[in-house]
C-alpha cells in the first residue's frame, strides 16, 4: 500500500507562517485515509470530493490517495 499526499501551499491561507494551516490540513488526513480504506476497490480510481485537501478559505490545495494495488 502506498499513501500519497499532495499539498500546494502557494495561496493566501499559507501566507506569513504557513505551519498552522499545514497542520490544520494534515489533521484531516487520518479521517480521509479511513474513508478511502473503507471504499470497495473498483476499476475506476477517480478521486472523490472527500479526497480533496481544503484550505481554511475553502480552496482545494491538495489531494490524498491511498493506493492499495500494492497489497
Please characterize this protein's 3D structure.
- This protein has two helices and three strands.
- The termini are close together.
- It is an alpha+beta fold and 71 residues long.
- It has a three-stranded antiparallel beta sheet with strand order 1-3-2.
- The chain is elongated, with a radius of gyration of 13 Å.
- The mean pLDDT is 87.
- The chain has one domain.
Tell me the β content: 15-25%
What is the count of helical runs? 2
Radius of gyration: 13 Å
Helix-and-strand structural type: alpha+beta
Strand runs, count: 3
Mean pLDDT: 87
Give, in spatial order, the strands making up the sheet with the most strands: 1-3-2
SSE order in H/E notation?
EHHEE
Q: Give the % helix.
A: 25-40%
- Count of discrete structural domains: 1
User: What is the first-to-last residue Cα distance?
Assistant: 5 Å
Q: Runs with pLDDT <50, length 5+? A: none
Largest sheet: 3 strands, antiparallel
Summary of the model, kept short:
25% of the residues lie in helices and 24% in strands. The chain has 71 residues and is an alpha+beta fold.
Topology diagram in text:
Layout: E1 2-7, H1 19-26, H2 29-38, E2 52-54, E3 60-67
Antiparallel strand pairs: 1-3, 2-3
Amino acid at each position: 500500500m502506498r499513501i500519497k499526499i499532495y499539498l500546494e501551499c502557494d495561496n493566501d491561507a499559507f501566507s506569513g507562517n504557513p505551519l498552522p494551516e499545514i497542520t490544520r490540513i494534515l489533521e484531516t488526513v487520518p479521517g480521509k485515509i479511513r474513508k478511502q480504506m473503507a471504499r470497495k476497490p473498483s476499476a475506476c480510481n477517480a478521486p472523490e470530493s472527500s479526497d480533496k485537501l481544503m484550505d481554511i478559505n475553502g480552496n482545494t490545495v491538495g489531494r490524498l490517495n491511498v493506493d492499495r494495488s500494492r497489497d
